[in-house]
Structure formats: C-alpha cells, structure tokens
Automatic annotation (TrEMBL):
Signal peptide (from-to): none
TPR repeat coordinates: 430-463
SMART domains: TPR
Pfam families attached to this UniProt entry: TPR_12, TPR_16
Protein name in UniProt: Tetratricopeptide repeat-containing protein
Keyword Transferase: no
PANTHER family from the UniProt entry: RAPSYN-RELATED, TETRATRICOPEPTIDE REPEAT PROTEIN 28
Lineage: superkingdom: Archaea
Zinc-finger listed as a keyword: no
Record's keyword terms, sorted: TPR repeat
Length: 549
C-alpha cells in the first residue's frame, strides 16, 4: 500500500501535484487511512491485468523515471508509459504484450489515480478552485450590444435608424411612381409601399413570420423585380429601383442566395445614398458569413459613399468588426478611434466606445476595457444596451478580482430588467444571475450561489439556451459538492453532461465528466466512470482525443 510520501511524488509525475503542506494535512487527518485506501484503490486499473510484483515494478519505474526532458500534460503520460514499458521489457516483464495495450491500462491508472487524489484534496478542503475564471468560460460572456452592427443575417434596423430609413423609402416611392402601370402594376406598387412601411414601422413583423407566409407577402416584390429585369430600358432609375427593391426584399427574407442577387443589382453611379446602403448591407452580411475579404471590399466602398458623420461612423464600426474577426486588434482600435472622432451623435460615440472596450478586453487590457464600457453606458439610451454594458463592466471587475464592484454591476442589470419579459432581456438577466452565482460560489456562500444559479437556469430554459443551462447545472453541482451533498451534485453534473451532448457543447461535457469522475472516485467507482467515458466517446467520437488531453 502506497504511503503519503510516495503518493505525493507519484502525484507530481501523473499530473495531480500536491505540496508538502497538503501532504502533511492529509497524513495527519483522522480520515488518513480511508483516504489512503481510496487512492490506492485506483491501482485496480493495473492490478486487474498484472500480478502484484509487476504492479510494484511499474510504480517503482515511474518513480525512477527522468521527467526533465518529457512534454507536459497527457503527452507526458504517454512518454512516461513508454519509458516504463521499455525499461521493464528488458527483463521480459511484458514479454509478448504490445505497448499499445500497456499504454491503455497505464493511462487509465493515471486518470483514476489523479481523480482519486483530487477527490481527497477537495474533500479535505485543501485547494480553493479558481471557479470565477474557469467555469463557466467567463470570457464567452462578454455581451455585444443588441443590434450593433447586427446579430443575424439581414438585420438593417441599426443602419436605418441611424441615418434614417426615410432615405430609402423616399427613393422607392419616387421610383415606383415612374414605373407604375408601365412596368409594375398599380396594385403591386401599393403592396410594395405597404411592405416598406411594415419594415420601417414594425421591425419584428417579418422576423416572426413563417417561410410560407413570407413567400406570400413578398410576391409583389418578386413580380416587380421580374418585370424590371424584362424591361429593356437602360436608364439609371431602373438600376436604382432594382437595387432598392432587392435591399427591401433582403430585409424581409434574408438568405445567402438573395445576398448574391442583391450584389448583382448595383445602383447607378451617381446615387451615393443608395450606393452606400447597397454596399453597407452587403458588407455587413458577408462579414457575418465569414467572407471577410468581400466584406472589407464592400465596406471600403460604403465608406467612400458615406457623406455624413453617421454613415461614416457606422462604416468604421463595421470595419472594426471585420478587423476583429481577423484578430487584427491594432487596426480595429484605429477604426474605432476614427469613428469616435467623427461621430457627433451621443449613441454613436457610445457604440464606438463599446466596441473599443471589446477590443481591449480581447487583448487582456481590462482596465481600459472597463473604462470604455463605462463611457459607453453613459451614452446608451436603450435599456437592453445599458444592461449589456453593465454586464461587461461586471465581467471585467470579476476577472480583476473586484467582486464587490462586480456584484454592484450585476445587481444593476437585475434592477434595470426587473419588469422586462423579452428573450433578450432574459438572456442578459441570466448572464447577471449566473455571474452572481459564480461570485458567491467563489466566496463560499453556497446558498446564495444556488439561489442565483437557479434563477439563471430558469431564464435560460425559457430562452432555450442549452449551453447556459448546462453551465448553470454544473455550477449548482459545484455548490452542492462544496456542501458535501454528493448524490445531488452528481445528478446535476449528469444533467449538465447530457445537455452538453445535446447541444454539442464539448467543453461543457468534458467539465461535467471531470466532476462526475471525481465524485465517483470518492466512492471507488472507477469502473463506472470508465464506462461513462466510453459511452461519451461512443456518442461523440470527436471527444475521445479531448478526453485524453
């Protein structure tokens, strides 16, 4: 049976390092013998295959191995196992057994040993986990503003709210008058104006509509576009109306095919207003599709047609988003700085500051990020945008370790959104509640942590955010584990694991499995954990490699 001195050294070689103080506390604990038995039981992974003398030889070879030139992580386990295998093979210990079979068993032993040792350390409260940074992935929680520049394919509401949807409306109305009755029927012209008014006055009207109903609604637009293409005239107004109607059609029924169609219908060379709209919307959607070269090309053209500060500012924000997608942070900062200098509108400046905060955040400049988010909040009139800014300030404070400041910001989100019921508000509230839960979990106030996490869980269930549900279930499991309610904690981790699989959230699945494995190790249920691991690999073959790292 291995003693604490051997376990301490072996742990360092197998990826579960404990220091002298931990080892002393474990050895002097009243539960020392029980803990030793638990850790030693992990050697079943070797004893099931090899006789005691060979198991002892394996452990001795591990202790004598030179780790100075070996890689880190599980690659070190592979290298270490090969070293042990080759050393013991010289005296025919593994005669006839291939290395691959030995490696499977050795790797299983290393994982079981580490799970058992970490379970014992956790049980004795000897290691404080850095929960705030590691679970959930807090850096994924940085929230973008509601519509800046766009969350989904085809959203135009921000662009038109800034420089006025009336610009496009007036152009379409005037052009329809020119072609009414000759190319486009009077009824279709009226129907198109009706569509345009719905887009301008009720931005969510078409978003909530099913595909079949949309096809019925856009029939007048399709007939008008078809008639114009068949019309033989070459005048500039024809090109302008084709471009304007294609933009309107795309706003109602966004798709990649319509994006290609819209790019074909370019306005006449002298119509800068329409050329700006045409290029800006194409640039935005190519960016969302990840076609960044095309996005940059069209956005550069949009900037050249932007003759007022709002349009220039919007194009510069879009340029910064393209640079961010390319991870070119210096150029993103330059574009946003230009935007801030040209924008006279308070909300536009706030937008530039908000995105500048995101860039600083991505480059780990948290102080500057927080200051930008604070400046942006002062210029944001929409309550949902203000909630986003508060969440981001709280996230930065949380990562800096200023938990009191973080709590103030997240409670501010709760205050702003207390009477709001929309899905966006629920998502923002969930982020605030989830982070409050993490903070109180880190402060070891487990009842408060569970209370906030349950609130976040309910909101994410309402909005069908499965990744969020998995994170909150896992965090509740952590709080229950800390309260030593192991059976209930295990149920939450298993639920988090299943939901993570359902939404292909591999990081969540791996985290949940690691906690399940640890809890099962407390009961010596190594085989059950191994069976669960094999089931995970069967359900998602791509996870096998991640489980070994």
């Amino acid at each position: 049976m291995l003693g604490w001195a051997t376990i301490k050294e072996l742990g360092g070689r197998l990826g579960a390092t404990i220091d002298d103080a931990m080892a002393d506390k474990l050895s002097s604990s009243p539960d020392s013998e029980r803990s030793l038995e638990l850790i030693n039981s992990s050697m079943r992974a070797l004893k099931d295959r090899y006789p005691p003398e060979i198991v002892d030889a394996i452990i001795k070879a591990v202790m004598e191995a030179d780790l100075s030139m070996k890689p880190a992580g599980w690659r070190q386990i592979e290298s270490l196992s090969r070293d042990v295998f080759e050393r013991l093979s010289t005296n025919n210990t593994f005669a006839g057994e291939p290395f691959d079979e030995f490696y499977i068993r050795f790797k299983r032993f290393a994982r079981w040993f580490r799970a058992a040792l970490e379970a014992v350390i956790s049980l004795h409260g000897l290691k404080k986990e850095d929960i705030a940074l590691d679970n959930p992935a807090i850096k994924d929680y940085l929230i973008e503003l509601k519509e800046l520049p766009s969350r989904r394919l085809g959203e135009l509401s921000f662009a038109y709210r800034r420089h006025g949807y009336d610009t496009l409306s007036h152009q379409i109305q005037a052009l329809l008058d020119k072609y009414m009755d000759s190319v486009i029927t009077r009824d279709n012209c009226r129907a198109i104006v009706n569509i345009m008014n719905k887009v301008a006055g009720h931005p969510g009207y078409f978003k909530a509509m099913g595909a079949e109903q949309k096809l019925i609604e856009i029939k007048p637009l399709l007939l008008a576009l078809s008639g114009l293409q068949l019309y033989s005239g070459k005048e500039p107004e024809k090109a302008d109306l084709l471009a304007a109607l294609s933009i309107l059609l795309f706003n109602v029924f966004p798709s990649q095919k319509l994006l290609k169609l819209m790019s074909r219908f370019e306005p006449s060379p002298k119509n800068d207003e329409l050329l700006y709209d045409h290029c800006a919307i194409i640039a935005m959607n190519y960016m969302l599709l990840g076609r960044l070269d095309l996005a940059a090309k069209y956005n550069e053209r949009a900037l050249s047609y932007a003759h007022d500060e709002e349009k220039r500012a919007y194009a510069l924000i879009l340029e910064s988003c393209i640079h961010l997608s390319r991870k070119d942070f210096d150029k993103a900062i330059a574009a946003l700085s230009r935007c801030s200098s040209v924008a006279g509108d308070k909300r536009m400046r706030a937008t530039a500051q908000f995105y500048l905060g995101i860039v600083y955040y991505e480059t780990d400049r948290l102080e500057e990020a927080m200051e930008c988010f604070r400046l942006s909040r002062d210029g944001l009139e929409d309550e949902l945008d203000a909630m986003s800014a508060c969440n981001n300030i709280g996230t930065c404070a949380m990562l800096q370790g200023d938990l009191k400041a973080a709590i103030r910001e997240f409670e501010g989100v709760e205050y702003i959104g207390r009477y709001m019921t929309g899905n966006t508000a629920k998502s923002l509230m969930s982020v605030a509640y989830g982070n409050l839960g993490i903070i109180y979990l880190n402060m070891m106030e487990y009842d408060r942590a569970i209370g906030y996490l349950k609130k976040a869980l309910k909101l994410d269930k309402d909005t069908h955010d499965n990744k969020g549900v998995a994170n909150h279930l896992a965090n509740i499991g952590l709080a229950l584990e800390a309260r030593r309610e192991y059976k209930l904690a295990l149920e939450h981790f298993k639920s988090a694991l299943n939901i993570s699989f359902m939404c292909d959230y591999l990081e969540g699945a791996l985290f949940s499995f690691s906690r399940i494995e640890r809890l099962m190790a407390l009961e010596g249920r190594f085989e059950d954990a191994e069976a669960l691991k094999q089931e995970m690999a069967r359900r998602n073959p791509g996870i096998s490699r991640m489980l070994s790292e």
